[in-house]
Amino acid sequence: MNEEKKAKDATPAGPEKAVEQPAVEQSPENAPEALGEPGAEIRAVGERRGMFGAAGSGDTSGYGGLVAPVVLPGEAQRPFGGWFDTVADKLDALIERVVIHRGEITFHVHRDRLLEVARLLRDDPSLRFEFLSGVSGVHYPGDSGHELHAVYHFGSYTWNRRIRVEVGVPDSDPHVPSLVPLYPAADWHERETWDMFGLQFDGHPSLSRILMPDDWPGHPQRKDYPLGGIPVEYKGATVPPPDQRRSYN
Amino acid sequence: MVSTGSTTDQDFYADPTDTAEGGDNKVFTVTGQDWGDIAAGLGDNDAAERVVVNMGPQHPSTHGVLRLILEIEGETVTEARCGIGYLHTGIEKNMEFRTWTQGVTFCTRMDYLSPFFNEMTYVLGVERLLDIEDDIPEKAQVMRVLLMELNRISSHLVCIATGGMEIGALTVMTIGFRERELVLDLFELITGLRMNHAFIRPGGVAQDLPPGALDEIRGFVDLMKKRLPEYAALCNANPIFKARLENVGHLDLEGCMALGLSGPVLRSTGYGYDLRKAQPYCGYETYDFDVQTWDTADSYGRFRVRLNEMWESLKIIEQAADRLARLEGEPVMIADKKVAWPAQLSIGADGMGNSLDHIRHIMGESMEALIHHFKLVTEGFRVPAGQAYVPVESPRGELGAHVVSDGGTRPFRAHFRDPSFNNLQAMGLMSEGGQIADVIVAIASIDPVMGGVDR
């Protein structure tokens, strides 16, 4: 939606409105600043707009246009604990940052390093991630410079571990190296992610559409691609399609 | 009904003038009983060239709409490719426009032979993001396990039944669907629906067990203990069955790992990897059961693995039934009212709906309860921003939902790693170099469900 609204820190996108509301001072635990981990870098990757359920503001009418920044879990600090450190030690030079949330570890990797990381994950005896469960794309329109994310879930049979590797690339240059040479299992998953998000996997043997018809325009899972649907009339009333209904987000 | 490319005005699959070789290829539309005409049409010069056969897109059995593109030399398949996407319904996209709870209603329809597993992996992801994994009532977890294992039996039965039908063993099909029907009856009794249940919800399950359900379940287990040996007697040593399945669709452990195969295909190589044991969820670590393996890495091995897994599922169901008998009257939904669905369901004269007690309470007694109900049902609950991936061992292998939240009341993204989608990639490796008839057996041994593949 509004890319220019992307906030570097976690201040709400409508500061003049927040000032008008005394509720922030009354309940500081709801202020966005308090939501991130202390000491962790807070990076907003978008914003939510909705009608009710505002946090950090007394305005629940919805008429003010409630806006909340989307803040994903921040960077984790050492020590990570357990085998997380073992894996992170091996990867340390190749990764941008590590996020640990709800017991799952995510390694953010620059695309130039992805093949190196994947090769290490597969071949290193102390890592041995033999299993690539697939690629999932996520589109963050507000995360400027990293709008398209490719998310890989690796599994290790040897060590019974699971990690997530995430690569963010700009929408204007959506190229990610293909993992098919290392993990043939990625073949169809990368085709699906190309089909749904327009992420181009360089080095894929035949990056073609897989779920949508070959001549389909656009990439349906992107946030700027409409859901579609028509209003349905029932007994005189009209029900709008799901993406045009009132949103309480 | 044979039409060659030179006489057909329009052919949707290949216009002879468009082919890569510049229009030299002939296109036949095959409708059956016309091989003589095709052989004659090919002529002496063409016969040596490669023939590409389109198998489908159609409904080869109950696996769904799958298109196979086979390059053949006589009866031998030299190259095999899959065309998928015919059942794509945009479920993942649709889920981004509904609340977290409504998402269950969508994802249950993906792999329609194992609906509870779709719901389970999604719900586990949501619960992890909500950080309520430890707060789910024990009875809800036991009911989830019970339903999943019943579902595993019904799914394996369909796999064996349709796999048998595809090689002409129709009795296997009829008895397979006969038993599956009994499982669906249990589902109907417990959830109200035979398929597409949307029963497992974030925080628990939708409803308590109805009275008498445990007796029905125990009766089913007793019956299955008599009926499962029938499959073994029919198939295990049947020379025709074995001749069709043994050494067909071979894929060893190395191939399985490279192509990311999981489930019975992986276990048929002798490697006993099962997420229920390796990374337990829903309390599977407290149940007594064994991981079934076979060491032939072929279609026959996969059949035997599935057959044995049904016995293991029966063991789990018995244990779950015993626990449920002890848990009578316990809650099946999380105590946190900010997440728990406010209403219990009941059967009325016009079908299933909110229980009358609840309606009376919110409409006549408590304004706050009405507001709470309204907010939770229309607006839904918020899930903290982040992402989670909690795979479960579905009948076909690792099924996982990558759930991403932006902190709102709807999934920011829900992506399902469906085992059938991944495992179908192995079709070429399993069937190239074999006979055409073995392609069918190889695919049946993967047990793909196109609803899950295409989503």
Question: What is the compact description of this entry?
Answer:
In chain A, 16% of the residues lie in helices and 26% in strands.
Average pLDDT of chain B, rounded to a whole number, is: 85
Which chains have the largest interface? Answer: A-B, 51 and 53 residues
How many individual helices of chain B? 18
Form type of chain B:
globular
- Give the oligomer, counting copies of the same chain as homo and different chains as hetero: heterodimer
Strand order of the largest sheet of chain A: 3-4-7-6-5
The largest β sheet of chain B comes out as: 4 strands, antiparallel
CATH topology heading of one domain in chain B: Cytochrome-c3 Hydrogenase, chain B
CATH level 3 topology of the largest domain in chain A: Beta Polymerase, domain 2
Q: Any idea of the CATH class of one domain in chain B? A: Mainly Alpha
Write the topology of this structure:
The complex is a heterodimer of chains A (249) and B (455).
Chain A: H1 15-20, H2 23-26, E1 44-50, E2 66-71, H3 83-91, E3 95-101, E4 104-109, H4 114-123, E5 131-139, E6 148-156, E7 161-169, E8 175-177, H5 186-197, E9 200-202, E10 232-234, E11 237-239
Parallel strand pairs in A: 4-7, 8-9
Antiparallel strand pairs in A: 1-2, 3-4, 5-6, 6-7, 10-11
Chain B: H1 35-47, E1 51-58, E2 66-73, E3 76-83, H2 91-95, H3 102-107, H4 115-130, H5 138-166, H6 170-191, E4 200-201, E5 204-205, H7 213-236, H8 239-245, H9 253-258, H10 264-267, H11 275-278, H12 299-326, E6 345-348, E7 351-354, H13 356-365, H14 367-379, E8 386-389, E9 392-394, E10 397-405, E11 413-417, H15 419-423, H16 427-431, H17 436-446, H18 450-454
Antiparallel strand pairs in B: 1-2, 2-3, 4-5, 6-7, 8-10, 9-10, 10-11
Helix pairs in contact in B: 4-5, 5-6, 5-12, 5-17, 6-7, 7-12, 12-17, 13-14
Q: What key phrases describe this protein's structure?
A:
heterodimer, A: 249 residues, alpha+beta, Beta Polymerase, domain 2, 2 domains, 5-stranded mixed sheet, two-stranded antiparallel ribbon, B: 455 residues, Cytochrome-c3 Hydrogenase, chain B, 18 helices, 11 strands, 13% strand, transport (chain A), NADH_UbQ_OxRdtase_30kDa_su (chain A), quinone binding (chain A), NAD (chain A), cell membrane (chain A)
